Structure formats: C-alpha cells, structure tokens
C-alpha cells in the first residue's frame, strides 16, 4: 500500500455584495467571500490538500486567477478538475478532514449537504468527509468578520493495478 498525506489552507475576505459559497453550498448571509472564482474557501483548501499530497503545487498553479476562464467559476468544477488530476496519477481519496474558521454565520445546518457534495465529487462515502466549524472567539480578522479560513487534511491511496 502506498499512501500520501496532504494539507491545504485557504483564506478569503468577506465583503458585502457577494454570495457566500462554502463547501459547494450557497449560504444565506449578508456578506460573501471575495475572489476571482466563486471564492469557496473550503473547496479551495481541499483542492490544495489533494494537489499537495502528490507534490503537484497548489490551486493557483493549476487554475490561475489571472485566467478569465476561471472568473466566477463554480469551485465544484475546480474540485472535479483537481480530482481528475489525482486519478490520472493513479490515486484515490481515502478520507478528508476539514475545519472552517469563521465568526458568522453558523454553518452547522449546511454541513451535511457540504459532506454529500464533496463526497460525490471525490467518489467516496459521506462518512469519509469531515467538515467542522469553529470561531476564533472574536479575535483577529476572523473574529471581526473580515474574512474566513479553511483547513483540509487529505489522505490518498495508490490505486493498485490488478491487471
Ligand atoms: Zn480560495
């Protein structure tokens, strides 16, 4: 068996006039994440973890934010494209553990939907995708509601060619 561990982290500003996409789910809130794509901080952290596990750089290398192709793109598409790269390298996802750090809104009601979306894209079970949420106890930029952060750890397993 050949396993690879990966870690991803992503930050975005929270601003008025943007929708808030998190884990592939649109969450009703007065602010949204600022970015070139739909700025889904959780899916971006997972993409970085997947790429990092195979030493393939990060999301910015594969999907540059200077490329008009990726303007306002649904980050579920970026996750799908990233997963294709993982499969091309003969790896499968074992499990993913994530944390989102934000002051508001409460994301607990949306966590199961996020797990389902992420699991279906990565062809794993919902039980193999963990999404946790925490605040910073009102400290720092997260605590002031200026931005949010997501962290993702991933484990990949080499696909054994039985032929
Ligand atoms: Zn991002």
Task: Please name the defining characteristics of this protein.
two-stranded antiparallel sheet, single chain, 5 helices, globular, 163 residues, alpha+beta, binds zinc ion, 32% strand
What does this 3D model show about the protein?
With 163 residues, the chain is of the alpha+beta class. Helices cover 29% and strands 32% of the residues. The protein has helices at 41-53, 59-62, 75-88, 111-122, 140-143; strands at residues 3-16, 20-22, 25-27, 31-33, 91-101, 129-134, 147-158. Strands 4-1-7-5-6 form a 5-stranded mixed sheet. It has a two-stranded antiparallel ribbon with strand order 2-3. Strand 2 and strand 3 form a beta hairpin. Helix 1 (41-53) runs parallel beside helix 3 and helix 3 (75-88) runs parallel beside helix 4. The mean pLDDT is 95. The chain binds zinc ion. Zinc ion binds at residues 10, 12, 35, 39, 41, 44. Zinc ion is lined by residues 10, 12, 35, 39, 41, 44.
Summarize the structure.
Helix content is 29%, strand content 32%.
Q: Any low-confidence stretches, pLDDT <50, length ≥5?
A: none
Helix amount, in percent?
25-40%
Radius of gyration of CA atoms, rounded to a whole number? 15 Å
Shape: globular
- Give the total of beta strands: 7
Strand order of the largest sheet: 4-1-7-5-6
Bound molecules: zinc ion
Mean pLDDT, nearest integer? 95
What gap, in angstroms, lies between the N and C termini?
16 Å
Beta-strand residue fraction: 25-35%
Q: Helix count? A: 5
Note the run of SSEs as H and E. Answer: EEEEHHHEHEHE
SS-based class: alpha+beta
Major sheet: 5 strands, mixed
């Amino acid at each position: 068996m050949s396993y690879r561990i990966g870690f991803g982290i992503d930050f975005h500003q929270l601003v008025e006039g943007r929708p808030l996409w998190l884990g592939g789910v649109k969450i009703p809130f007065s602010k949204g994440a600022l970015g070139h794509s739909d700025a889904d901080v959780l899916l971006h952290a997972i993409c970085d973890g997947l790429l990092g596990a195979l030493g393939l750089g990060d999301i910015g290398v594969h999907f540059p934010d200077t490329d008009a192709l990726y303007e306002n793109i649904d980050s579920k598409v970026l996750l799908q494209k990233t997963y294709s790269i993982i499969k091309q390298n003969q790896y499968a996802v074992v499990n993913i553990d994530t944390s989102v750090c934000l002051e508001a809104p409460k994301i607990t009601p949306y966590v199961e939907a996020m797990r389902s979306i992420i699991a279906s894209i990565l062809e794993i079970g919902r039980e193999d995708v963990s999404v946790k949420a925490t605040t910073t106890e009102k400290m720092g930029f997260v605590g002031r509601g200026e931005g949010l952060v997501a962290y993702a750890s991933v484990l990949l397993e080499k696909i054994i060619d039985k032929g």
